[in-house]
């Protein structure tokens, strides 16, 4: 939708599992062609973008390897980069560039699509030393043309960062909801204020997608969860001992850093 | 502001520490009179509403005790109820009704005021067996007239509930920001997506106000923090052991419960 509206002359071919949804994509003019066969959908493409759950990317990548046009560039939009890069780079060599547009929300599917989704959103690219510089530039130009702001880092740096900036907040949201469910009377949800709503919004995300992401990034996410658990225990300790000064200092440091967060491009980035 | 707009005939007298801010309140027509002396501000009032940080309420309550009109009803808007009720009920007897309008945001001060703040917001009242039923009814009618929806429970039930629905999400927000600050490169904040923003919005709240609230409700908040810490450790354990099924089940239960959350009256309740 974003590509169609910003680059109307680009030819778009879409792959999907459901004939019905592909028909809807075509009837809404969002693509020029569509197929449930990945090889047919990617036929003749100059840039192939894999946007499936990370667990499915190797399988699709293996189907496409050796079947693409000479010089075709391959990228992905997965939330974890080390495992994806390790599996896809060997299939496509220097023409593969790992990517992670950090946009989206707890909603999914065609009904949640919006043409301004990437406008001002960060997009992380994770080239390897073996990545073709032209391929990196082309993938960067693609996301920039959709309005995203490119940052590059290694796949490992990416996974460490998103474990703390995205996967941990998601895990906290799911855990906070289950804690309320198991420890409070049934009708307590009607008393939820903004802090609970804000902290748990993403607990409405797809459980299947998110269990996949957390498992794929399990090493970094488990570390982040344990760091968080340690911080929470130390806050509880400060409370037990009524250490107002160290608590105030902890909250003050957090407020200062949070207040330095640049304003969002729009409200629904994930 | 809400009272002025919804009940224009009610006479409003305001107490505050700063002459300058009281002048602004008067010049904007938000009150009929104002004073930096609590006794003068409460003179002749039928309903006295204490809205200071919970740590200051006993002091102000002690100044007012014995100085109010006969039959005056006293309530408060504090985020913790057990400690406040224990201190204020003896001062005002059955005429004191503990209250907690669950509205507000990370912003504070006159610039953050809005006349629709309480519209559709939950308001918890925490009467004791000794509370005068007429006083309870009057305080309920006051908040209802501002658009809030009343729920009653004991002070202890309130503190247990808000520890998990509000104080824990606030503590998580502060901790999540500090975790990012201490474990990621300095410019990482620009990569924050919606889940980090949503989970940490309230870390911009007043550190002084919130260290006070967490300390006042320390027993319940410390319990909630330790329950959360245990949940996070168990998620980390599931990740270590790649237990996708139990993780998927955990996330699915959370999504179902979160999806049952009634829609908010407006976006900025806290």
Tell me briefly what this model is.
The structure is a homodimer of 270-residue chains. Chain A is α/β, with parallel strands linked by helices and 270 residues long.
Structure report:
Chain A folds into two domains: 152 residues, Rossmann fold; 102 residues, 6-phosphogluconate dehydrogenase C-terminal fold. Chain A is of the alpha/beta class and 270 residues long. In chain A, helix 4 runs parallel beside helix 5 and helix 7 packs across helix 10. Chain A is globular, with a radius of gyration of 21 Å. Helix content of chain A is 51%, strand content 11%. The C terminus of chain A is likely disordered. In chain A, helix 2 links the parallel strand 1 and strand 2. In chain A, the strands form two sheets. A five-stranded mixed beta sheet of chain A has the order 3-4-5-6-7, with helices on both faces. In chain A, strands 1-2 form a two-stranded parallel ribbon. The two termini of chain A are 18 Å apart. At the A-B interface, helix 7, helix 8, helix 9, helix 10 and helix 11 of A face helix 7, helix 8, helix 9, helix 10 and helix 11 of B.
Oligomer: homodimer
Helix- and strand-based class of chain A?
alpha/beta
Strand content of chain A: 5-15%
Give the overall silhouette of chain A.
globular
Count the beta strands of chain A.
7
> Which sequence of SSEs, written as H and E, runs from N to C of chain A?
HEHEHEHEHEEHEHHHHH
Q: Over all CA atoms, what is the radius of gyration of chain A?
A: 21 Å
Low-confidence region ranges of chain A: 266-270
Distance between the termini of chain A: 18 Å
Q: How can the largest sheet of chain A be summarized?
A: 5 strands, mixed
Largest interface: A-B, 94 and 95 residues
Task: Output the CATH homologous superfamily of the largest domain in chain A.
Answer: NAD(P)-binding Rossmann-like Domain
Q: In CATH terms, what is the architecture of the largest domain in chain A?
A: 3-Layer(aba) Sandwich
Fraction of residues in helix of chain A: 40-55%
CATH class of the largest domain in chain A: Alpha Beta
- The number of distinct helices of chain A, counting runs of at least 4 residues, comes to 11
Widest sheet: strand ordering of chain A: 3-4-5-6-7
Average pLDDT figure of chain A: 94
Domain count of chain A: the total is: 2
Q: What's the CATH topology label of the largest domain in chain A?
A: Rossmann fold
């Amino acid at each position: 939708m974003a590509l169609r509206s910003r680059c109307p002359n680009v030819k778009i071919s879409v792959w999907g599992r459901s004939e019905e949804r592909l028909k809807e994509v075509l009837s809404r003019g969002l693509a020029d062609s569509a197929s449930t066969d990945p090889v047919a959908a990617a036929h003749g493409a100059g840039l192939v973008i894999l946007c499936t759950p990370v667990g499915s990317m190797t399988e699709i990548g293996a189907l496409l390897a050796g079947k693409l046009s000479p010089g075709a560039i391959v990228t992905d939009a997965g939330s974890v980069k080390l495992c994806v890069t390790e599996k896809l780079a060997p299939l496509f060599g220097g023409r593969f560039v790992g990517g992670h547009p950090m946009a989206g929300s707890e909603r999914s599917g065609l009904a949640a699509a919006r043409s301004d989704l990437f406008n001002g959103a960060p997009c992380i690219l994770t080239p390897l030393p073996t990545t073709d510089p032209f391929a990196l530039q082309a993938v960067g130009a693609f996301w920039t043309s959709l309005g995203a702001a490119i940052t590059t880092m290694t796949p490992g740096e990416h996974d460490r960062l998103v474990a703390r900036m995205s996967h941990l907040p998601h895990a906290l949201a799911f855990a906070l909801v289950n804690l309320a469910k198991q420890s409070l009377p049934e009708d307590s949800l009607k008393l939820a204020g903004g802090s609970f709503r804000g902290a748990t919004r993403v607990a409405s995300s797809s459980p299947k997608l998110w269990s996949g992401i957390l498992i794929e990034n399990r090493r970094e996410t488990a570390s982040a969860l344990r760091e968080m658990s340690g911080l929470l225990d130390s806050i509880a300790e400060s409370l037990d001992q009524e250490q107002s000064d160290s608590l105030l200092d902890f909250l003050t440091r957090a407020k200062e850093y949070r207040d330095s967060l640049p304003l969002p491009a729009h409200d629904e980035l994930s």
